[in-house]
Here is the input.
Amino acid sequence: MSTPQLSLQLYSARQALEADQDATLARIAGLGLRDVEVFDFVHRPGELADALGRHGLTARTGHAELLSPQRPDGADAPTLDDTFAAAERIGLDLVIDPFVPASRWTDDREITRTATLLNEAADRAADHGLRVGYHNHSQEFVHTVNGSSAFEYFVSLLDPGVDLEIDLYWAAAGGKDVVGLLERLGARVKALHVKDGAIIDDPFFSEAPFEPADTGQVAPGQGEVPLDAAIAAAAHVEFAIIEFDYYSGDIFEGIEAAVRYLAAKGIS
Here is the structure.
């Protein structure tokens, strides 16, 4: 098993970044992080690359809409070429689609369409020297197709060069045995979102609005997700990425606790 690169999804500190980007990046670097995962980067690649560089940070992975023509706020998503050009400017290796709505995981034809779109995006990304991947939540695991979860059916349709970023918290919320899932997916999994908390039921098929505070997320090692066994099962992972969708305390204390947890496993 190779040792993955420690990283942080910057979305975890989104409020602090909005208030003072430079001070926040400096604080992240001060916690010993050298790599981050970026989000919402397509409209500002130069600014973001310069800001990361000022604080000795690099970004090799990033989240961007690859599979939906519109963003969650209703705005048109950037084109693939604009997305990949921005990714090149920042220095990314891997561009990951972070979310496909629950409605697209109930029908095998729609799942097939989503997989086809990601395969096509992979071909375009290769022209830029990039790879693409998909990041799960829990809605991908609720329904089954031919005896497999919708997510694993989706994976079976992906070209070999398409990578997976498994969010351990959300896979558990989808009712999956995350260790068994990782063992079945094997070398497809190139990144983990190392995230912990109470194992809740999938909220994305609920009629109630999703409330991040209800996730009860805590620092890694303090919740119910079997992170130790999951990390051990992910033998081909290149990136171990800290992320909090919501954290009730000081987010920097949560990030620091996550860094300590992973450092104890030799991931730094």
Observations:
- The chain has one domain: 5-263.
- The first helix runs from residue 14 to 19.
